[in-house]
Write a structure and sequence with these properties.
The chain has helices spanning about 25-30, 55-65, 70-75; strands spanning about 30-35, 40, 50. The protein is of the alpha+beta class. Bound molecules: zinc ion (ZN). This is BED-type domain-containing protein.
Length: about 80
C-alpha cells in the first residue's frame, strides 16, 4: 500500500490593471465642470463657456483666443 503524497498546486493569478489614458484637453486644464457637462467655467477669467461634453472645440477656442499664452504653454 503506497499513499500518494498530496500535491498542492499553486496557480499564479495575474491581474491586469487597466490604465485608461484620458488625454488632457483644454477643457480639463482650464475649465471647471459646469452644469451636467453642457457648460464649463474658465478658471482663468471666470467666463462660462457652453459646449457639449464630447466637443472641446468651444473650450479650446476660448483659451486660444482669450488666453493665448496659457494655451501655447499647455501644448
Ligand atoms: Zn477664460
Amino acid at each position: 500500500m503506497s499513499s500518494n503524497p498530496a500535491v498542492a498546486s499553486f496557480s499564479t493569478i495575474t491581474t491586469i490593471q487597466k490604465t485608461t489614458n484620458i488625454p488632457e484637453t483644454a477643457r480639463d486644464k482650464f475649465f471647471t465642470n459646469g452644469e451636467k457637462g453642457r457648460s464649463a467655467k474658465c478658471v482663468l477669467c471666470g467666463e462660462t463657456v457652453k459646449g457639449n461634453l464630447g466637443v472641446t472645440s468651444n473650450y479650446s477656442r476660448h483659451v486660444e483666443k482669450e488666453h493665448g499664452i496659457e494655451f501655447q504653454l499647455s501644448n
